[in-house]
Amino acid sequence: MSCEIKEKERAGIINPIFTCQPAGAQYASIGIKDCLAVVHGGQGCVMFVRLLFAQHFKDNFDIASSSVHEDGAVFGAVHRVEEAVDVVLMRYPHVKVIPIITTCSTEVIGDDVDGVIRKLNQGLLKEKYADREVYLIPVHTPSFKGSQVTGYDVALEAFVQTLAKKDKPNGKLNLITGWVNPGDVTALKHLLSEMQVEATVLFEIESFDSPLMPDPDHSAVSHGSTTVEELIDTANALGTIALNKYEGGKAAHYLEKEFDIPTIIGPTPIGIRNTDTFLQNLKKMTGKPIPQSLVRERGIAIDALTDLVHMFFADKRVAIYGHPDLVIGLAEFCLDLEMKPVLLLLGDDNVTYQEDPRLKAFQENVDFEMQVICNSDLWELEDRIKNQGLELDLILGHSKGRFIAIDNNIPMVRVGFPTYDRAGLYRHPVVGYAGAIWLAEEMANTLFTDMEYKKNKEWILNVW
Amino acid sequence: MPYHKFKCSECIPEREKHAVTKGPGEDLTSCLPLGYLNTIPGTISERGCAYCGAKHVIGAPMKDVIHMSHGPVGCTYDTWQTKRYISDNDNFQLKYTYATDVKEKHIIFGAEKMLKQNIIEAFQAFPYIKRMSLYQTCATALIGDDIGAVAQEVMEEMPDVDIFVCNSPGFAGPSQSGGHHKINLAWLDQKVGTFEPEITSKYVINYVGDYNIQGDTEVMVDYFKRMGIQVLSCFTGNGSYDSLRGMHRGHLNVLECARSSEYICNELRVRYGIPRLDIEGFGFKPLSESLMKVAMFFGLEKEAQAIIDEEIARWKPELDWYAKRLQGKKVCLWPGGSKLWHWANVIHEEMGVEVVSVYTKFGHQGDMEKGIARCQEGALAIDDPNELEGIEAMKTLKPDIIFTGVRPGEVAKKLRVQYLNAHAYHNGPYKGFEGWVRFARDIYNALYSPIHQLSGLDISKDEIPTEVGFLTRQMISDVNINKEETTPIEERPYTGDYDCVTKLRGKTYPRSSEPLSDAV
């Protein structure tokens, strides 16, 4: 009985879990107010990422491209960055922040993005936009390194590196959420508000869920609302809590090193236990007590879970894939729910996963056969099910793996990014006590539906 | 001056000649917008890249093929599960995608060795698949990997597999259209003529330029088969790799999307003498004429007429029901390429909607020529539109509905403009007689959605009708329709099935009665 951590043995990818770095940087960029990123590469690198965001959120997000064509690939394309920045600034008068996000093609041809930003700062911005506050941020995200996860991490680090400036202490906490949904931010802000903790949230993305108004001129554009001033002020926080080690950890470390800001990395507050820890960390950092209201809220969650765990969840075999912090958090929660997360799939070649203390804790303590596959693809899951006799009761993962569930008749709860084949999931949290309730009940209801479709003891629910 | 100047683009003089308004009596040649030029950086164009044009549009609908992209993972991920090209092969081509996963060390030291390992592993994972398409991407094109040589080496070592190589990196052209061109010619050069298909009819066609979006190809192939025609290959919707290697044995290339695949038809004519016949699967009249054109080539007019009569008798009353309720509704026809001209006039003629604007993301001037020639006077034609221009056009033209892609559809939603998916369809197929009714039905459902009506109410100041508990679509659409006078009894809303394609797959067809020995 043990937990084995290993790498995928094949060289290539059959059905990827992640897309590449620039997508992560683009996701981070849409969290900033008045920000319009320019992706320096071919148009596909933007068009498809915008499509992916639109699929997940059922809303549109604006990101620009330098539209590198053949001549640029041969002779260099930095002039297309200059042109893109000018065109964006001319046509979008509200834009203040323009991250320049590189891709594989422009990194291979060696375009000097930092150099062109210096040139623009000294030239175009001074001459043509002297009365405008504009920040250009180089974000190096060659697609042949890491994944969307590191892209998010790298972009956030670039944002604070470029923007954060030491000033008077602001008495606020930096809360770096990692790659989450609007519903998660709502849940996290609720916890902060109950604790009476003031925080700069990176990123405020509740406004991704924007209304369709009777007067079209008042319809909101889906975009994040963390301001550039807040990013500048991250250097003056009383502390930083980065919930996801791999999505925002770099930025938190930078602020710690550069500005001596006390920092706690993790845990992803998925499940009761990790939410408890998050609240303890808030308390530790701010000195604020945990109020009765949260004791009560926790009680409601525990009450809901008690109805489900030993009756329905015990020993259910689960496979989980997606973002590393999400997968680990979900696996920990599953263990608390008496389930057996038998297979975890982490989808990029980050070698530090194997050293993650949370994975080490699995290795030391789980009492069933568990596998963690690093640098994984979705074929690692499907092949085990189809050809190696892996038996599962439930899959937790994003929509790109939907056919594994469909073709093998395994119930699946959509969680993570993207979840375009289910309605409105971005609105629901997986973090906090509210997230614990949502996750557990979603898993239970999915299992119940499956019991009914398969006529597998479906009558048991008669008297539940 | 026919050119249309967008306020939002006044600061970009290069955009001036990319939009025109079709004025009364104006000469087409004087007002044709520029097209297929490099994209202006930072405009937020809707274009994709040449890699996606090759792999995602044309290559990947092939149904019995491992589609492997040689590059970092993103290109593969992005072009996977973002289109609806179904197949009768359990959607193998939708479910599986392959990336060689090029990393930094490969960029530095080359990735040919790992490419070979990738190819072998993929065939091992799917031992029943023996065909592969291999796509170059930006990164591997720039480092100069010779993927053709690697493919050749594998084919020599594994004689039962066949590999097609497509060199169309993302930067290779102003838009996805560059990729269409490249893959057309690559397929012709490498694969056509390398497989001898079984000929079972006197009448043999290749059906080219349809990608089986929600079953379009299968609907059209059904008509051809009912006429006694053998459809040798489909390029590429629901197409099989080996059948497409046998395209040289077709007697006629029947072409739908001339934008994406006229190249292969033109070359098949030059090299093998196979004539090209452009047809249209959309709209009762164009479709009827198209079926008749194909029939006339082979002398099958009687068979074609029987199908046309049967289909029109079955579906016309349903099209008419919708047409009556769509009269005068304003449409922006904003597709990628070919629907610009395929739909430009027929949606007006057969459904009564007014086309107030046409655009193309990646079309060439020739596509605009056809689209503008066919669309109504006063329509605004835009080449390579960008985000702000689209918004400005919707605000000034005030369309009731736009036909476009998923993401621009979300932009329209916020402006209270309904949207239908012109690329992947809402509830297609839209080709065929029944499909055309489904299209009309989808437009109707969008326009007369009670929720859409509610979306315009401002509860803070408008008068809210508190005595109304619900509205049906017909309560909204039929306000001005005098049923007794204008609705003949047989007119009715759509009566087909939710899935009208799967049942075609088990059908048997009469074989050609004439002896095959007469076949060419």
What does this structure look like?
The complex is a heterodimer of chains A (464) and B (520). Chain A has 464 residues and is of the alpha/beta class. Helices cover 44% and strands 14% of the residues of chain A. Chain A is built from 19 helices and 15 strands. Chain A has helices at residues 21-29, 44-57, 70-75, 78-91, 104-108, 113-122, 124-127, 148-163, 182-194, 228-232, 249-259, 271-286, 292-306, 309-313, 324-336, 357-365, 379-387, 402-408, 432-454; strands at 3-7, 13-14, 38-40, 64-65, 97-102, 135-139, 173-176, 199-202, 239-242, 263-265, 317-322, 340-346, 370-374, 394-397, 412-414. In chain A, strands 1-13-12-11-14-15 form a six-stranded parallel sheet. A four-stranded parallel sheet of chain A has the order 4-3-5-6, sandwiched between helices. A four-stranded parallel sheet of chain A has the order 8-7-9-10, sandwiched between helices. In chain A, helix 9 crosses helix 19 and helix 12 packs across helix 15. The model of chain A has no long low-confidence stretch (mean pLDDT 97). By secondary structure, chain B is α/β, with parallel strands linked by helices. Chain B folds into three domains: 50-190, Rossmann fold (3-Layer(aba) Sandwich), CATH 3.40.50; 204-311, Rossmann fold (3-Layer(aba) Sandwich); 327-480, Nitrogenase molybdenum iron protein domain (Rossmann fold). Chain B is built from 22 helices and 14 strands. Chain B has helices spanning 50-59, 73-78, 92-95, 104-109, 112-125, 138-143, 147-157, 176-190, 216-226, 241-245, 258-272, 284-298, 301-326, 339-342, 346-351, 365-374, 387-397, 406-414, 432-447, 450-455, 473-477, 483-486, and strands spanning 19-21, 66-70, 98-99, 131-136, 162-166, 204-210, 230-236, 252-255, 276-278, 330-333, 354-360, 380-383, 401-404, 418-421. Chain B has a six-stranded mixed sheet with strand order 1-12-11-10-13-14, sandwiched between helices. In chain B, strand 13, helix 18 and strand 14 form a beta-alpha-beta unit. The radius of gyration of chain B is 24 Å and the shape is globular. The interface between A and B is large, with 77 and 83 residues. Strand 2 (13-14) of chain A pairs antiparallel with strand 3 (98-99) of chain B, so a sheet runs across the interface.
